[in-house]
């Protein structure tokens, strides 16, 4: 099985930043008041120490966001694989819950290549393999988030040849 382009770590890292900010924002509604009460009780309510505790809390908050995002990026990257077999595309991904997908070549309708700003900076492309009978998701059923631009073109050519062969057998 093949692994993603190393630049995918940046994409996963940014997803991790947003997820960690969202998670820690809601947790901070509980953590910061507790820290303020503990700081006020233990330190006698001195305003200078309360401000220092607040800034230490902010620095710890930012450090925790960076640590969570980095752990998520590395784990997501190391657990994302894809493979093209004779009959289908196999995709394996997931950190806690593993997800295994098989995309038969017969169901492939279209192949798109996307390159957002992060992808262009890091030098990778995302491949969206659209299939018959799949709808309603944020990504296509056959989504490969980060391959080199050359590999993306090879994947598209390979799959489009499979589509053309399939169409020529059916008539019309």
Overview of this structure, please?
By secondary structure, the chain is α+β, with helices and mostly antiparallel strands. The chain folds into 2 domains: 2-78; 82-170, PH-domain like (Roll), CATH 2.30.29. The chain has 4 helices and 7 strands. It has helices at 8-42, 47-78, 117-122, 149-170, and strands spanning 2-3, 81-84, 88-93, 99-104, 108-114, 125-131, 142-147. A 4-stranded antiparallel β-sheet has the order 1-2-3-4. A hairpin with a 5-residue loop joins strand 3 (88-93) and strand 4. Helix 1 (8-42) packs antiparallel against helix 2 (47-78).
Task: Return the CATH architecture of the largest domain.
Answer: Roll
Mean pLDDT: 84
What is the ordering of alpha helices and beta strands? EHHEEEEHEEH
How are the strands of the biggest sheet laid out side by side?
1-2-3-4
- Low-confidence stretches are none
Tally of contiguous helical segments = 4
- What is the overall silhouette? elongated
Q: TL;DR?
A:
The protein has 172 residues and is α+β, with helices and mostly antiparallel strands. Helix content is 55%, strand content 22%. A four-stranded antiparallel beta sheet has the order 1-2-3-4. A three-stranded antiparallel beta sheet has the order 5-6-7, with helices on one face.
Comma- or semicolon-separated keywords:
172 residues; elongated
């Amino acid at each position: 099985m093949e692994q993603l382009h190393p630049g995918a770590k940046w994409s996963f890292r940014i997803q991790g930043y947003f997820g960690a900010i969202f998670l820690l924002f809601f947790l901070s509604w509980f953590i910061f008041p507790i820290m303020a009460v503990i700081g006020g009780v233990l330190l006698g309510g001195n305003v200078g120490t309360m401000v220092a505790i607040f800034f230490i809390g902010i620095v710890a908050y930012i450090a925790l966001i960076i640590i969570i995002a980095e752990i998520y990026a590395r784990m997501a990257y190391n657990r994302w694989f894809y493979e093209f077999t004779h009959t289908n595309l196999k995709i394996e991904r997931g950190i806690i819950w593993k997800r295994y997908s098989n995309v038969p070549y017969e169901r492939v309708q279209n192949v798109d290549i996307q390159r957002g700003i992060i992808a262009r900076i890091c030098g990778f492309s995302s491949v969206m393999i659209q299939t018959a009978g799949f709808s309603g998701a944020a990504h296509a059923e056959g989504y490969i988030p980060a391959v080199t631009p050359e590999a993306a073109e090879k994947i598209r050519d390979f799959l489009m040849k499979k589509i053309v062969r399939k169409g020529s057998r059916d008539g019309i």
